[in-house]
Amino acid sequence: MRPALLNPAFTPINRLKGCGPKLAALIEKLTGGRLLDLWWHRPSGLVDRRYRPTIAEAQPGRICTLEISVEKHFPPRTPRLPYRITVSDATGSLTLVFFNGREDYLLRALPPGETRVISGQIELFDGRAQMTHPDRIGTPAEIAAMAAVEPVYPLTAGLSGRVMSKLVDEAVSRAPVLPEWLDPAYQKRQGWGDWQGALHRLHKPEEAEDLEPFTPWRSRLAYDELLANQLALLLVRRRLKRLTGRPLVGDGRLRDKLDKALPWPLTNAQRQAIAEIAGDMASERRMLRLLQGDVGSGKTMVALYSMLVAVEAGAQAALMAPTEILARQHAETLAPYAEKLGVKLALLTGRDKGKARAALLEQLASGGIDIVIGTHALFQGDVAFHNLGLAVIDEQHRFGVGQRLGLTNKGEGVDMLVMTATPIPRTLSLTAYGDMDVSKLTEKPPGRKPVDTRTVAAERLPEVMEAVARKIETGERVYWVCPLVEESEVSDLAAAAERHAALREKLEARLGAGSIGLVHGQMPAADKDAAMEDFVAGRSKLLVATTVIEVGVDVPEATLIVIEHAERFGLAQLHQLRGRVGRGGKPGSCLLLYYGKLGETSRARLKIIRESDDGFRIAEEDLRLRGAGEVLGTRQSGLPDFRLADLAAHADLLATARDDAKLILERDPTLKTPRGEALRHLLYLFERDAAIQYLQSG
Ligand code: ADP
Ligand code: MG
Phi and psi of 112, rounded to 5°? Predict the structure, then answer.
């Protein structure tokens, strides 16, 4: 149960004064719809209105707050001209200029003969001081509140800074005092205040430096978030480790046969990874291992060898893929080998229904199937294994911790191998996986040529379209990737839907009806799969996609990938995307379209991706150039989306949080001490409370 103290955090924002349904919907899209989403919505800038000169002193161009008396209104003679109001103080006079000014409003806000306070920038026009549209107008009583520093928040179309500030302010004022979860000695050493104070301070910047990641209040909040993350991961890991493993020792007979059946030798990196995995499986401890390997490094084969160890030892193995189509591809790749070895391999997806499904489940439960490949359908309630020994999860970051656990709960002490194609720098992998053991495939099978990668300015779009059409006319296939699907999200992004329409208009007559497909994130899963399958089967030849295109799907005929707004993608993501092409015999190429003039960082980043084919190096460089928050496009990658921590800036805090979490659970494994109770609040506050169940079941 969530502690009652935290109820305000999860209160919907439409309970705030002045937040109607329309506004609430806008904000929900931007930050999330609960008060805590506003708490974590950090100011990105500030406006300093503390400068209070007289009219004569006021420096043009600098924001100032002035106390003036209103002289005279000059409504325009024609509506196209501005409305003018003259104002003055003891030192001089000033003209206020309003375009489309409404007379009734202006007479109310600035009544002639009255004293008012205004804030804005003065400019000189024909040698006379004027202020166009003051930012603020108030009465003398309001001057103290007006002549202050205002935080500036990230906004979205239709949402004004004024309204956002008010709502955040009110949301923050409802933040409760929470029990302290920090170690008092550490807190003191860092000079950090309490949680509520830190939150208040975060939203009250006074100087530009106050927005930096290293302020005590921001550091404290970042630490809180990292501690919640590390504690949750550790709880899950402990839970897994406590369910002790069992030794699975294979005699090697199937692996030896496979060695002989493979058309090529394993790479050294594959051999090494397989040895590490077999070693873990043979031990009493339960395996929790992450297999990292760049696209094309041969992870699937490592998975097969690992599963054979389980089968040799008389157990079953399961391989879980994030989508139907990937599961099917894995099954198609591995089935011929399984057949040669006399190993029973089956595919189970959400599409299997009725009798066929019942028969399959029956065989799984009786041990008639040795290896099963599937989607998350694998851990549904009615799926039972005879003797599951190893779960391999090919996740491309799509499965949550809970789902990974779901599969391993299908057996006794099931060993777990997680495969990921994203080369994750150590800092990031800690936050996503905690302290998992890691095997890396640092070497690729020989023979594959790097994808020929070029950057192209968007002005050359017509040439790019022509190149695409020519490729397709020679029987090859092309991906066209756009960053976002909805024009409304960010107005100048090339939307996939719009690009799809434009490409159809230009090319469909030439390439044939139905030859241009579309797949994007907002489509229902079944439609997505269908669009992918059309492309795999060659019914469509040009696939316009947002980044949902499956990182692991093999379409050997695909030789060209066009990526629009390449400058907005994480490099690791670009690298994965281009790994989609050139997987058949023919070499692949990649065109990175960029818009506008590239800044220095963007240019450096695109240079790396052009010149390097090493996913690990690319990820490290990107981390160095951009900072962790952006590197992987966290939202798409499924890595935790930190709202207060910035891993590039707070890497040292992460290390401390990890040690802290370890110590906490050593001393207080069930979080029952007063600090433990406070830490439960922390887990709820950062929505890591799924981990709390592992406390009880321990
Ligand atoms: P990943 O899943 O790591 O992206 P795959 O397992 O799909 O990579 O392998 C990529 C391609 O390389 C596949 O066609 C696979 O058959 C092939 N392959 C795997 N291991 C080797 C090897 N040792 N030598 C040559 N080709 C290999
Ligand atoms: Mg793969």
Answer: -55, 140
Question: Same structural domain for residues 141 and 160?
Answer: no
- Give yes or no for residue 295 CB within 6 A of ligand 1: yes
Q: Which atom of ligand 1 is nearest to the CA of 300?
A: 6
Q: Give the residue, out of 301, 440, 575, 613, with the most ligand 1 atoms within 8 A of its beta carbon, to mutate for a pocket test.
A: 301
Cβ of residue 296 lying under 6 Å from some atom of ligand 1: yes
Same domain, yes or no, for 423 and 514?
A: no
Q: How many CB atoms lie within 10 A of CB 572?
A: 27
Domain end: 441, 466, 489, which one? 441
Mean pLDDT for the stretch of residues 104-131: 94
Domain boundary among 91, 111, 146: 146
Between the CA of 546 and the centroid of ligand 1 the distance, in Å, is: 25
* pLDDT confidence of residue 613: 87
Relative to the alpha carbon of 334, which ligand is closest? 1
Does 392 sit in the ligand 1 pocket, CB within 6 Å? no
Q: What is the CA radius of gyration of the chain?
A: 30
* pLDDT at site 272: 97
Q: At a CB cut-off of 8 Å and minimum separation 6, what does 76 contact?
A: 82, 83, 84
Closest C-alpha residue for ligand 1 atom 2: 299
Residue 665 lies inside a defined structural domain of this protein: no
Ligand 1 atom nearest residue 294's Cα: 3
Does the structure show a pLDDT above 80 at 319? yes
Residue pair 162/129 in contact (Cβ under 8 Å)? The answer is no
Do 488 and 555 share a domain, yes or no? yes
Bridge partners of 533, per DSSP, are none
The CB of 301 under 6 Å from ligand 1? The reply is yes
Q: Is the pTM of this model over 0.70?
A: no
| 416 and 526 fall within a common domain | no
pLDDT band at 634 (very low <50, low <70, confident <90, very high): very low
Q: Is 266 in the pocket of ligand 1 (CB under 6 A)?
A: yes
> What's the domain range around 551?
452-612
- In a domain, residue 697? The reply is no
Residue 176, pLDDT above cutoff 70: yes
Q: Are residues 392 and 490 in the same domain?
A: no
Pick the residue whose CA is nearest to atom 11 on ligand 1.
Answer: 296
58 Cβ inside 6 Å of ligand 1:
no
pLDDT of residue 125: 86
- The rounded Å distance from CA 520 to ligand 2 centre is 21
- Give the closest residue to 39 by CA, choosing from 267, 225, 285, 276: 225
Ligand 1 centroid to 573 CA: how many Å? 20
Q: Which residue's alpha carbon is at the smallest distance from atom 27 of ligand 1?
A: 445
The span from the CA of 569 to the CA of 564, in Å, is 9
Q: Round to whole Å and give the CA distance between 87 and 104.
A: 18
Do the domain assignments include residue 662? no
Residues 517 and 411 occupy one common structural domain: no
Q: Report how many domains make up the chain.
A: 4
Rounded (10°) CA dihedral 484, 488, 493, 497: 60
| 553 domain residue, yes or no | yes
Tell which residue, 598, 249, 236, has the closest CA to residue 435.
236
CATH of the domain at 275: 3.40.50.300
CA–centroid distance, 266 to ligand 1, in Å, is 9
* Average pLDDT across the chain, whole number: 88
Task: Tell me how far the alpha carbon of residue 181 lies from the centroid of ligand 1, in angstroms.
Answer: 48
To test the pocket of ligand 1, the residue of 262, 294, 300 to mutate (highest count of ligand atoms within 8 Å of its CB) is 300
Query: Are 671 and 679 within 8 A, CB to CB?
Result: yes
Please report which confidence band the pLDDT of residue 13 belongs to, taking 50, 70 and 90 as the band edges: very high
Residue pLDDT, tens place only, 482-518: 875 444 444 334 468 888 999 999 999 999 999 999 9
Q: How remote is the CA of residue 622 from the centroid of ligand 2, in Å?
A: 23
